[in-house]
Amino acid sequence: RYASTIALDDIRDAHARAKNDLFAEVERRTGKVLDPAAFTIGFARRSTPYKRADLIFTDLERLRRMTRRVGPLQIIYGGKAHPRDDWGKALIGKIFAAAKALDGDVTVLYLENYDMNLGGLMTAGVDVWLNTPLRPLEASGTSGMKAALNGVPSLSVLDGWWVEGHIEGVTGWAINGDPSLPSDPANDINALYLTLERTILPLYYGLPYAFAEVMRNAIALNGSFFNTQRMVMQYVRNAYQPSGQSLVERIAVEG
Predict the structure, then answer these.
(1) 247 in helix, strand or coil?
(2) Which are the contacts of 239, defined by CB distance < 8 A and separation ≥ 6?
């Protein structure tokens, strides 16, 4: 919670170091040199259709126009498909096809062999964590929680933890922001592009310290609540501990 008192220059410096660490690993794995000044989106999770990893590539020309008008864009992917999930494997293929089509306009990389170490680098080193599940299929979304702890805000459909964690423009941004309405892929696509083009990219390139405030809020507001310590204590109080009986008393009774 006290991260809210950290100086914005310290937030920016720490993130720059994390971004350099990620980009060094990207170069080691792929030979590709990324631009540390360019806005970088991260997307890493199991590849399966409902997570819609390819949603941002629905309109490639719109992405090209966006970067020409507002500023450069880099997207880093990670994650594996289940060996029997042919649709998930096909989704990865679509991302590679989009990366080839966008070459020279938008840099798109898919990092192989996603694991805990790479996950740590990505959830700390990108500028925004993208999450585009088809509502209401997202169980939780813990990768976004990890990103928040590192000062990386989310751009996400309002599903899973983001329904509670999202404060628009404060901890991050919502895609198609009314969770009470039926899920509409067409609206999600348009909302994703509009939020990127009109809000997030102008903030990142035009008001970097205002963007750093959102990063700081992600740590202080999201990170202080969406963590294992709080979760386990809630289980203890609400599920494991019977009403009127302390945990110590229960341990004594049950041995």
Answers:
(1) helix
(2) none
